[in-house]
Amino acid sequence: MQIPTDDGVAIHAEIRGNGPGLVLLHGITESSAAWAPLLGLCTADRTVLTVDLRGHGATGDGDDRSTQRLAADVHAAVTEAGLGPVDVIGHSLGGMVAATYAAMFEPRRVVVVDQPLALSGFRDQLLDAEEMLRGNGFEAFMTAMFDEMAGPLDADQRSRLADIRRPVQEVVLGIWSPVLQSTPDDLDALVRQIGSAISAPLLSLHGIDPGPEYVAWLTDLVPTAEVEVWVDHGHYPHLVDTSRFLARVESFLA
Description:
8 strands; 8-stranded mixed beta sheet; about 45% helix; about 250 residues; globular; alpha/beta
């Protein structure tokens, strides 16, 4: 289905299965197709809504690519699908959108997959690569970034995700520019604003260790949060070990 928004962007979403509502959100440059290995298992007892974020997949693009705008797009899809309070799982960029959705709306539970909510460290990484990101080195940077983060992901999954990715420079910079252009204090204030508004239970699951201070930082910011690190699982722990991921998610969402 295509859902129109108030700024003229058509959001592409697909709905499958029957049961409690579950929303799946993909990472940057990818699309809802990234969730394909899990869809058949998830839809066994749930109504699963997959959404292509704006500028990705079959969704249009617009000038506003903030996580607040992306979360509002997701809520428009949830409303159009006639779903009540939903569970939301977001990977990478989708994890940041899922957390923002939890701050703006009232989901039942939220799972954030390999997306630290502390953005100041990410800002430092982007600043180091800003010249490449804004220049002719953009595609090389994106390829190297995903290669580095893939971890133990098998060759078939690496190839499948590479085929899905569409690294559009304007879209990526539109999403990352607020991080690049903000001061650390401004970023911290934004994250505090989002985190302090989250009341739903939140599972923050990482395949790349976010650091020794992250658990205390996140649980202080979001008292409902649990943090789990699956050591050496890389950026795609949900695809590296789908059985373990589904079991953990089901126990958390139950």
